[in-house]
Amino acid sequence: MEVTYKNKNYTLGKKDRKVEGEAPAVRVKMVNNEDKVIGLMAPAVQVMITLNDINKYSSEIHKVINTTKRKVNAYIITSSDEEQIEDIAEKFALEKDFISNDFKNFSLKFGVNIDDSMLANSIFVIDKEGVIKYKEIPSDLEEDFKVDDFSITLNEVVNFKPTGHTHENWMGI
C-alpha cells in the first residue's frame, strides 16, 4: 500500500494487516518509560492510533474514545517529539502511559512504517480475542480519519455479546 505526504508517495512496510486477522503482539516503550506489550488478546478492546504528527489527534477522535473509555485501552503511537506529545497530552488530558513515540517496531508489525522517521496515520480496533475488527489508513497523511465509521465499529466491538450454546441446546432438549 502507498500513502502520500506533501505530494510524495511512500510505500508502507511489508506486513499488511487485514480485518478479521490476528493482531500482532508488540513491545512498546511508553513516554512515561513504562514497557508494555500491546496487541493480541487483552482484557479490554484495544484501539491503536498511529499518527505521523500527534497534532492530527483531534477532538472528534478523543470524543469517540471517551464514550467507551471504561471498556477500551486506546494507545497513540507517533513519530512526534516529546514536546509535541506533552502539548497534546495536556490539551486532551491524555495519560502518558498510553502514548509512545517508540514507533519503529510497532509500525513494522502493523504495516504502517514509512521509514526510520515516519509512519502512516492509522486506526486499528482490536477485540478482546486479539482480532482486528477495524482498520483505516488514509492514503494521504494530510487526510482526516473517517471518524463516523470508526465510532460505529468501536461501539459494535465494545458492545458485542458472544453467543454460545445454551445447556438445553447442547443437550438436545
Number of domains: 1
What percent of residues adopt helix (DSSP H or I)? Answer: 25-40%
Known CATH architecture: 3-Layer(aba) Sandwich
Would you tell me the overall average pLDDT?
90
Task: Give Rg in angstroms.
Answer: 17 Å
Characterize the largest beta sheet: strand count, sense, and whether it forms a barrel: 5 strands, mixed
Order of helices and strands: EEEEEHEHEHEEEEHH
Strand content: 25-35%
CATH topology description: Glutaredoxin
If strands are numbered along the chain, what order do they take across the biggest sheet? 7-6-5-10-11
Q: What's the helix count? A: 5
Regions with little confidence, pLDDT below 50 for 5+ residues: none
CATH superfamily (homologous) name: Glutaredoxin
Q: Helix/strand-derived class?
A: alpha+beta
What does it look like?
By secondary structure, this protein is of the alpha+beta class. The chain has a single domain (2-161), classed as Glutaredoxin, CATH 3.40.30. It is built from 5 helices and 11 strands; from the N terminus they run E-E-E-E-E-H-E-H-E-H-E-E-E-E-H-H. The chain has a 5-stranded mixed beta sheet, covered by helices on one side. A two-stranded antiparallel sheet has the order 1-2. A two-stranded antiparallel ribbon has the order 3-4. Helix 1 packs parallel to helix 4 (147-158). It is globular and about 50 Å long. The chain starts with a strand and ends with a helix.
